[in-house]
Every structure is written in C-alpha cells, then in structure tokens.
Design goal:
By secondary structure, the chain is α+β, with helices and mostly antiparallel strands. It is built from three helices and three strands; from the N terminus they run H-E-E-H-H-E. It is globular and about 35 Å long.
C-alpha cells in the first residue's frame, strides 16, 4: 500500500463504521486532512447522531481511535479522529 492510498482507505473505513452506527447514514461525511506526518480524519454526522458515534462515556469514539492507532503503528503514519458537532441553524417561518 502506498502512502497516497492510505488516507483514502482510512477515510473509507471510518465512513463505513460511522454509517453502521447512525440513523442517518446519508449525512455521514469524513474529510481527510493531510499534515506533515499525520492525517486528521474529521467525522461529521447528523446532529441527532453525534451521541451514537461518541457512545456512552466516549467508548465508541475511543474504539474507533484505537483502530486508527493500530493502523498508524502498522503503516508508520499517524491518524487522528475528530468528531465535529455541527449545529444546524433553524430559520423561523414568517420572520
């Protein structure tokens, strides 16, 4: 596996894990941001699904980060996971 392939594969892995956990898999978006010696994976899900990808006491998120840590060791490239909570702006009708 070449360096160029790794972020896409890890991005796809996190996407598939997140889609399996949430109620709205269509809203799952994972962005890979390459840095010098690491890649940050930014996970966005629907506002109602944030708790599902974090899990009780952060266990689910910690498990995903553990998987990324194991891959990081094997490929000598650090991966980190950021779970971004997006607040949807609600516009009142008639204002």
């Amino acid at each position: 596996m070449t360096y160029e392939e790794m972020p896409d594969n890890m991005q796809e892995l996190v996407t598939e894990i997140a889609k399996a956990l949430v109620d709205d898999p269509g809203a799952v978006n994972v962005e890979a941001v390459a840095r010098d010696e690491s890649t940050v994976l930014r996970l966005r899900v629907a506002p109602g699904d944030v708790g599902k990808v974090i899990g009780k006491q952060g266990r689910t998120a910690r498990s995903m980060r553990t998987i990324l840590g194991a891959v990081s060791m094997k490929h000598h490239h650090r991966y980190t996971l950021d779970i971004l909570e997006e607040h949807l702006e609600k516009h009142a009708v008639g204002e």
